[in-house]
């Protein structure tokens, strides 16, 4: 069966994911070592240790994301967190930075290393380099590849691949987008946040809801229409004679129906995005996807059911897996 | 499973109107007892708020004739009920069922926000921190109140179960795990 890798932004979400059938959960510490460094989220050192013990007791693995890029002169925090993850019993760490990968390979050789999507390794040469140089055993592929491209990659590499199947979409090759820093001074790679809530303001203006990021209006939504979060790349902009979602629509990914094709393409693990979401969301999405991977493994048809109401913009897309770019 | 937004029950306007003349004092007394209890039993929830743990949150159930204030300034938790919107760093508004359903693990906060059942104003970071902290605390309002009710707990639980059935409002935690985790 394909491995289902599920988000846990809090210990409660971790419990919800495991009880709902997650084979593995991924989570991070409550600091800048983690690309989901949001207010009220993440794990203290003690919560990480007890969470991992609880997950292991129920047969689930825990992957610890240390997937930001250490600041020059600040590496010590990332190194300490690697040691904390190993001491807590993590089954693997998810890393993006080459220096941190090298440090982990040297000082924590027994802990599995996964390559984060933030590293944006999107071709066999890059992946093979990470595997040879740092002993990476799994790579999380960026959300820019088609199923055929994933199959082509898998034919030329020896490490496992993990792909996103559900949740918020980051449309760039991750790790290379600094859009958010132009409006807020903060970006995923440096601060673990994209379009951070600290720079978001909503205002009811007449019948409309205006969503601003760093003072720029990103969306204006009429009454009774779904209101997306003002993520910069999903904003409504004017460019030349075009006004609209110039980069990407405010929709999220749902590739459930592509699971059989992804299995055929040689993918090992399926990842659900959403460490910033509630335990209600995590429980519902994980249950749905666990039923789907079981059906695929048993050769049964995919169970029906849609999760669109949980999605941003309340609409879903198959993303780049079957994408035509603008 | 459905692809439609969950219909968040709204209390009938008549009920709201009928509650308007009721004094707020008994409610505020219960809320103070509840806030002391939450602070004692769920310290992790307040720790999780981090830098936002000294702010005021106005919780505005739009189908009730009152606004609740959660005041965390000075390292204390104070809950109170008000007729008019009190000053606060952040305001969250929506049907009372949305607040209770979110707190009890039945609804996802982001989904309620995308569907505009919930509206946020002011300090968005503080609201996110509060939502995440409450979600992690796995609260059960009925059980917290039942513990406060002493010998009346049985009656309270039965009344709540009835109210829940009649109104569709989620009044207890829905995802209680068998045995729980250590
Ligand atoms: S702006 Fe969009 S593409 Fe860039 S990091 Fe944020 S979500 Fe990803």
TrEMBL record, chain B:
It comes from the Bacteria. Signal peptide: none annotated. It holds the Pfam family SCP2. InterPro entries: SCP2_sterol-bd_dom, SCP2_sterol-bd_dom_sf. Residues 47-134 form the SCP2 domain. This is Sterol-binding protein. It comes from Phaeovulum veldkampii DSM 11550.
């Amino acid at each position: 069966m394909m491995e289902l890798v599920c988000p846990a932004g809090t210990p409660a979400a971790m419990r919800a994911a495991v009880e709902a059938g997650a084979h593995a959960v991924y989570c991070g510490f409550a600091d800048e070592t983690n690309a989901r460094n949001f207010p009220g989220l993440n794990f203290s050192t003690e919560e990480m240790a007890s969470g991992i013990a609880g997950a292991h007791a129920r047969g689930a693995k825990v992957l610890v994301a240390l997937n930001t890029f250490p600041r020059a002169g600040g590496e010590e925090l990332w190194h300490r967190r690697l040691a904390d993850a190993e001491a807590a019993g993590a089954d693997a760490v998810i890393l993006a930075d080459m220096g941190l990968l090298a440090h982990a390979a040297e000082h924590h050789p027994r802990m599995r290393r996964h390559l984060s999507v933030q590293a944006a390794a999107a071709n066999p040469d890059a992946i093979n380099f990470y595997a040879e140089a740092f002993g990476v055993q799994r790579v999380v592929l960026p959300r820019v590849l088609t199923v055929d491209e994933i199959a082509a990659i898998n034919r030329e590499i020896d490490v496992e691949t993990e792909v996103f199947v559900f949740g918020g979409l980051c449309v760039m090759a991750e790790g290379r987008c600094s859009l958010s820093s132009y409006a807020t001074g903060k970006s995923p790679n440096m601060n673990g946040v994209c379009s951070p809530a600290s720079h978001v303001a909503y205002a009811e203006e007449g019948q409309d809801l205006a969503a601003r990021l760093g003072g720029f209006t990103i969306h204006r939504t009429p009454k009774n229409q779904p209101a997306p979060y003002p993520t910069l790349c999903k904003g409504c902009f004017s460019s030349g004679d075009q006004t609209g979602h110039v980069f990407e629509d405010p929709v999220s990914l749902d590739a459930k129906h592509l699971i059989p094709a992804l299995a055929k393409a040689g993918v090992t693990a399926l990842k659900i995005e959403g460490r910033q979401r509630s335990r209600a969301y995590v429980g519902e999405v994980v249950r749905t996807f666990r039923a789907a991977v079981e059906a695929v493994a048993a050769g049964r048809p995919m169970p029906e059911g849609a999760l669109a109401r949980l999605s941003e913009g309340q609409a879903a897309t198959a993303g780049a897996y079957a994408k035509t770019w603008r | 499973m459905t692809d439609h937004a969950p219909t968040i029950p709204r209390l009938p306007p008549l009920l709201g109107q009928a509650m308007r003349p009721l004094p707020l004092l008994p409610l505020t007394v219960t809320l103070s007892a509840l806030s002391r209890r939450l602070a004692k039993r769920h310290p992790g929830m307040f720790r999780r708020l981090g830098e936002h743990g000294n702010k005021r949150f106005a919780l505005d159930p739009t189908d009730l004739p009152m606004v609740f204030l959660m005041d965390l300034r000075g390292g204390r938790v104070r809950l109170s009920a008000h007729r008019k919107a009190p000053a606060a760093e952040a305001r969250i508004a929506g049907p009372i069922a949305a607040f209770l359903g979110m707190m009890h693990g039945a609804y996802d906060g982001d989904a309620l926000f995308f569907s505009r059942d919930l509206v946020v104003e002011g300090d968005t970071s503080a609201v996110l921190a509060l939502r995440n902290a409450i979600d992690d605390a796995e609260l059960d309002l009925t059980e917290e109140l039942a513990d406060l009710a002493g010998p009346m707990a049985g009656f309270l639980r039965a009344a709540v179960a009835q109210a829940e059935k009649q109104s569709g409002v989620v009044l207890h935690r829905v995802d209680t795990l068998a045995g729980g985790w250590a």
